[in-house]
Amino acid sequence: MSVPSWEDFNVWVLRVLNEGETLSIRELRREVPVRMKLTEEQLSATVSSGQSMVANRIGWAASYLTRVDALERPQRAHYRITGIGRQLLVEHPDRVTEHHLRMLAKPDDKWWITVPKHEDGAQKSDEVEQVDTKLDPIAQVEQGITRIHEDIGYQLLSRLQEREWGFFEEAVVDLLLKMGYGGVHGRGQVTRFTRDGGIDGVIDQDALGLNKVYIQAKRYGANTAVQRPEVQSFAGALRGKADGGVFITTGRFTSGALEYVNNSPDRIILVDGQQLVSLMIQYRVGVEVKQTYSVVEIDDDYFT
Question: Nearest to residue 255, comparing CAs of 270, 267, 241?
């Protein structure tokens, strides 16, 4: 008997949490299979990494439900149901699908709310793009990795927003050094300022500190925007002192802030929350490789 899909676990995760308790992911992985009356064969199935397939899919269900605020995390790895989650159970008591979750996508969650446009360019609010199942196997793998990275990016932003500002600034410095801002050979010294003119950090591009990059880090909510005056203040602080600056936020930038940088003679790079987590994944900051896959093809030279 095959293991239910992660979609099939959604309603059961909601049902268990609807009893009012806050449960850890470990407790959910223990309680949900009991309620679903899964067989020993289903419970013993594993994914290629060796993890329990049931545990893996319960984890995905909890993650996606949290992404649309059907669940909330009062503390790390613990979940409780919200009003949105209870309403999902009322409207879809038998099965909560990905389609149902996508209908609850947040405005800034662009991956979840991509919808097809009609010939006139309009799109209906109740339409949601379906996953393309006609892709070749390699394209399906790539699509799957993209979905995993999107979810990890969402979790990264949540973790950064939960931690103290000092941790966020350290993470920003770590990222810039990983990206090579400490010099072509990876050398560089990081000096933390004490809120000096709004500068949160500096990276020396060479051993003598002749070339510097100033850093401004703002730990904002996803819907909170950095305004033009903040960017102007940052530009003033680095003028005559550094070769350039990087302004990074977990939120976003207003059009005024973007316009100022585009027209400013100062070398300032703006990095918003979505770009930040994408770079953290790319340069392996705050994440680690869980599993790798190899794709093989016929070696024609062998058969010649």
Answer: 270
* Model pLDDT, residue 116: 44
Residue 54 near residue 43 (C-beta atoms within 8 A): yes
Q: Map the chain to HEC letters.
A: CCCCCHHHHHHHHHHHHCCCCCEEHHHHHHHHHHHHCCCHHHHHCECCCCCEHHHHHHHHHHHHHHHCCCEECCCCCEEEECHHHHHHHHHCCCCCCHHHHHCCCCCCCCCCCCCCCCCCCCCCCCCCCCCCCCCCHHHHHHHHHHHHHHHHHHHHHHHHHHCCHHHHHHHHHHHHHHCCCCCCCCCCCEECCCCECCECEEEECCCCCCCEEEEEEECCCCCCEECHHHHHHHHHHHCCCCCEEEEEECCEECHHHHHHHHHCCCCEEEECHHHHHHHHHHCCCCCCCCCCCCCCCCCHHHHC
Which pLDDT does position 133 carry in this prediction?
A: 46
Q: How many angstroms separate the CA atoms of 61 and 67, rounded?
A: 10
Q: pTM higher than 0.90 for the full model?
A: no
The one-letter code for the residue type at 301 is D
Count the neighbouring beta carbons within 10 Å of the beta carbon of residue 109. 16
Per-residue tokens: 75? 């503390």
Per residue in 148-199, pLDDT (tens digit) is 888 899 889 988 988 888 889 889 988 988 888 876 554 444 555 545 556 7
For 129-153, write each residue's pLDDT tens digit: 444 445 566 667 777 888 888 889 9
CA pseudo-torsion sign 159, 162, 167, 171 = positive
- The pair of structure tokens assigned to 10 is 């959604």
Confidence of residue 107 (pLDDT cuts 50, 70, 90): confident
Q: CB burial class (10 A; 0-12, 13-18, 19+) of residue 270?
A: buried
